[in-house]
Amino acid sequence: MSAVAFTGTSVMDIDAAKIRGAGSNVHFDKVSVAYGAHVVLHPLTLDIAPGEILAMIGPSGSGKTTALRAVAGFVRPASGRIRIGAADVTDLPPYERGLGMVVQNYALFPHMRVEDNVAFGLRAQGADKALIGERVKEALATVGMATFARRYPRELSGGQQQRVAIARALAVRPRVLLLDEPLSALDAQIRRNMVEEIARLHRSLPGLTILYVTHDQTEALTLADKIAIMRDGRVCSHGPTTELYRRPPNRFTAEFLGRANLLPVTVAEPAGSKGFATARHRDAVLTGAGRDEKAGDRSLLCIRPQHLSLTADSEHTNRIVGTLREVHWQGELTHLVLDVDGTPVRVSATKLPVALPEPGAEVPLFFAPADTSLLPEDAGG
Amino acid sequence: MAEAVALCAPAIRREPGKFWIVPPAALLALLFFYPLALIARQAFLDDSGVANAAEIIRVLHSRFFLNALINTVTISVTATAGCLIVGLVLALILAFVPFPGSGFIARLIDTFIALPTFLVTLAFTFLYGSAGMLNSGLMEAFSLPLPPVDFLYSTWGVVLAEVTVYTPFILRPLLAAFSLVDRGQIEAASVHGARPFRIVRQVILPAAIPALIAGGSLCLLLTVNEFGIVLFIGAKGVITLPLLIYGKAIQESAYQVACVIAVVNIALSLGLFGLYRFAAGRLGV
Questions:
Q1: Inside any domain, residue A297
Q2: Chain A touched by B181 (CB under 8 Å)
Q3: Cβ of A111 and B194 within 8 Å?
Q4: Domain total for chain A?
Q5: Beta-carbon contacts below 8 Å between A and B
Q6: pLDDT beyond 60 at B176
Q7: How far is A107 from chain B (nearest CA, A)?
Q8: Whole-angstrom Cα distance, residue A217 to residue A57?
Q9: Do B191 and A109 touch (CB under 8 A)?
Q10: Tens of pLDDT along A210-252?
Q11: Is residue A381 part of a domain?
Q12: Closest CA to A254 of A308, A217, A223, A225
């Protein structure tokens, strides 16, 4: 399965501009969804720019799939409007919204061959035979499934079925592609390959706007231009992927998006024009990217495990000391768990000193101010 | 030598409980196969007990038999088609159109299976009969001298009653099949541009074909053998095979004729049942 890759050589490249021209931005304008008295999506205002991949991530029941289903037209908002391009689609049925969708269980039509599955949307839209043939070929070539056109879905592996589902969605030249946990049913290895291939696919279709719902932070980090983190029916943070990862605005985001060490600190000196604040953790004076903290505020210092080092250098100027509790060797990485004044601190290291300290030993940890950020102690957390 | 013989002797294997087949087989033979065999035997013997094959040929070529056969096939095929259409529409509504109380309605329709078939006919008499509610209302409203609705005492009355009685036999397997249709497929079809009718035609129906075939075959089997409804309606000229057997055996005491027709009826039923089992087996119902 992994040997077959998206070719990215399709004429769909040509259509990227057409998709963009049709208006492929998505705008949620105070969209809320409720089932009776139970509100599952609180008023949501969010923009997805044309050609952007927005990943909505969050735990189960956070409202991310509801938001996607509202765009698809399967859930009617209790309030607010949804616009795709210039058109208000809130009251349109799903078949008039010009979307493509891929879901977790592929949802291929089992009684149709692969080519008929891919042609389904085009036939439904009344496209002529020649165009259907052309588009089916292109879509299958795009996902590397051209040689499987005459097979039935039951004759394909999970990964291949998901490629066909993607081809089916692409064949209709959607304005927006909705991906609802598309890789959840695949095993880890195939999932990793598929993530890379979806990224490659999007590079070949730069005008295609994608709303990608997942609970897998790795998929979101790999694919998304922007991420919206959902919690309890609300967006608790939204922003460019790297920004959100490097400078999480709240504790939930820091902990949900990758692993994070959160050290309680007291702000000593607020961030100035350079954007760096200093804070105290016990006797240690630490520097990290600040926001609008004031001197004396209680705050959390966020450091990712891979940014902690056991050795000092000119960049790693922050220093804390912890007691080594556990060492887990995992081949490429070694995970250390330390106790820093009662706060567990995890370190993911690719290189370790030749003489690794024994558990119970006092170990200094070093990290760079650029890899450190302050975040409010309570908000969102 | 004795050792060699002992080694070559086949081991006697006792299959525990193999004699348990005897009581049910005996019971079946006594209650089912023996009476059937008597009917088949009687078909070849005249009333004085003498073999009479010419009577079989005469009956099979008679106008009354052919009319009854045509009536039986016409009514059962039409009623089955009606059951399939009504059952499909009802099942689609109950399964895919969300409304409060759909489960209750489905269970209510199920209860029809428990009722005797002629009861619906009796109810139809009150509704559509000459002195029924519909005709009385129309006669009163339009000052008509005669009842204007007169379909009940015809083939159509029988078909309507059979459709009413046997639709649940289609509905049940269809609802079971629809509950297994992946909602993701319907949503994918819809989001890619398919309108509801296309979704029903190209996504839902293919998934329901086994249930339709199984339900339809069962319906056909039951309507071929339907007796109570046809008798109760008493439509003029609407004689089916079961009704003809009843008439010949009970009213005319023509037992050989009745048995010849019964053998044809049994063959027809077993043929349909065989088809049903074949379809069900092939489609995994």
A1: yes
A2: no
A3: no
A4: 2
A5: 68
A6: yes
A7: 5
A8: 7
A9: no
A10: 999 998 888 999 999 999 999 999 999 999 999 999 999 999 9
A11: no
A12: A217
